[in-house]
Amino acid sequence: MASSIHNNRSASSKTCLCLRLFNMWCWRAFKWVPVLLILGILSWSYYAYVYQLCIATLESTAQQCAYLVMYHILLIMLIWSYYQTIFSQLQDIPDKFKLPASELEKLLSAESDDAQRSLLEAYAADLPVLTRTMSGSVRYCNRCVIIKPDRAHHCSICARCVLKMDHHCPWVNNCVCFHNYKYFMLFLGYALVYCLFVMATCMPFFIKFWKGNFGGATATGRYHVVFAFFVALMFGISLGSLFGYHCYLVSHNRTTLEAFRAPMFRGGADKNGFSMGCFGNFKEVFGARPHLWLVPVFTSFGDGIAFPLPPQDEDAESLLSAERWDRWGQRPRPFDEHLESSSYDEL
Ligand SMILES: [Zn+2]
Ligand SMILES: [Zn+2]
User: Fold this and answer.
1) Separation of 154 CA from ligand 1 center, angstroms?
2) Ligand 1: distance of its center to the CA of 153 in Å?
3) Domain Palmitoyltransferase DHHC, which positions (predicted)?
4) Residue pair 151/261 in contact by the 8 Å Cβ criterion
5) Which ligand is nearest to the CA of 145?
6) Closest CA to 44 of 177, 216, 228, 226
7) How confident is the model at residue 344 (pLDDT cuts 50, 70, 90)?
8) Most C-beta atoms within 10 A of its C-beta, which of 49, 107, 249, 333?
């Protein structure tokens, strides 16, 4: 009797585990749907543009070559940036930010909020963290059991804390963060130019279509070209506004999350707390080598854990920041001209 109850229990727990695994795999597969949708639209646009417009409609060989070369350059850069944004690995937060078991026990057994705050403050004293919560305490993630590095946030979809988190983007099935922000910007930029190029080159045929003198293409071919114009217009408008907004964020050194809620320092909230001037902010994301600005390879400054603050002599936070940059090694600062990508491994 006892063994049959035991067998039933183990069978039901196995079924439960299988169901959970099945749900997990379904959810994982479902998250790729927006990416597949983008790839589907790109594949169709390739057929519409390359075959229906360039091969079946255009009559001039020179025009065909010029359009095809330009189109493929844009497409390669677009897909390369997209690939890099999707497959950039989220980096682990260094162990020194993780609360050891002894500290966690102390934190959980602390009698008051103030006692917890003091414990976290003491533990974070040697960490490069300058930002605080709205109540002024050290930022702590109780799901990851870590002190959050400046600008890091917990992503509920990725189920982890993410360095310089901008937002979780379903269209790339990844968090847009410190390690792929440059790729994301390039992806938006190349996608916008791609749409503008398709629009500009399809427009004369779109006008001809309405006038009724489209030319040699079949009826289906004509609809593909006209539809390509409309789809490029629709995506161009949404990409243009999103790219413009992110250019604004880059120029002010803000993430999307920081644009909604300004980072809090000991002296209070400061929406421009990380801004190093427009060009400095641009270089923080795109690096110092102009020939790599438009190439989707990693050239951002720093390691996503510690960030310099603008120099202001009277500002206590700035002094603290400068002290800390010095204390963590006599290493070049991120804005030194000779440094295109620094990695402060020891931080
Ligand atoms: Zn977390
Ligand atoms: Zn995420």
Assistant:
1) 4
2) 7
3) 139-260
4) no
5) 1
6) 228
7) very low
8) 49
Catalytic site positions = 169
Residue predicted with more confidence, 8 or 48? 48
Between the CA of 294 and the centroid of ligand 2 the distance, in Å, is 25
Average model confidence (pLDDT) across the chain:
86
Q: Supply the pLDDT for residue 177.
A: 96
pLDDT digits (tens, 9 = 90+) for 153-187: 999 999 999 999 999 999 999 999 999 999 999 99
Which amino acid is present at 199?
M
Query: Nearest bound ligand to CA 160?
Result: 1
pLDDT for the residue numbered 108: 87
Q: At what angle do helices 181-211 and 278-286 cross, to 10 degrees?
A: 100
Percent of the chain with pLDDT over 70: 85
Query: 3-class DSSP state for residue 19?
Result: helix
Tell me, in angstroms, the distance from the centre of ligand 2 to residue 35's CA: 15
CA distance 12 to 116: 42
> What is the CA(95)–ligand 1 centre distance, in A?
13
Q: Domain ranges in the chain? A: 28-91+169-347, 94-148
Residues 6 or more apart from 96 whose CB is under 8 A from it? 127
pLDDT at 266 over 90: no
Q: Would you state the structure tokens that stand for residue 196, as one six-digit string?
A: 């503008």
- The ligand minimizing its distance to the Cα of 157 is 2
| Residue of higher predicted confidence among 329 and 53 | 53
C-alpha dihedral over 241, 262, 155, 320, to 10 degrees? Answer: 130
- Write the DSSP assignment of 83-138 as a string of letters: HHHHHPPPPPPPGGGBPPHHHHHHHHH-SSHHHHHHHHHHHGGGS----B-TTSSB
Residue 287, token pair as written in the block = 């690096």
**Ligand having the closest approach to the CA of 154:** 1
What is the Å distance from ligand 1's center to 346 Cα? Answer: 21
Structural contact between residues 201 and 67, judged by C-beta atoms closer than 8 angstroms = yes
Span 257-282, average pLDDT: 92
* pTM beyond 0.70: yes
- What pLDDT, on the 0 to 100 scale, is given for residue 15? 75
Distance from Cα 163 to the centre of ligand 1, integer Å: 10
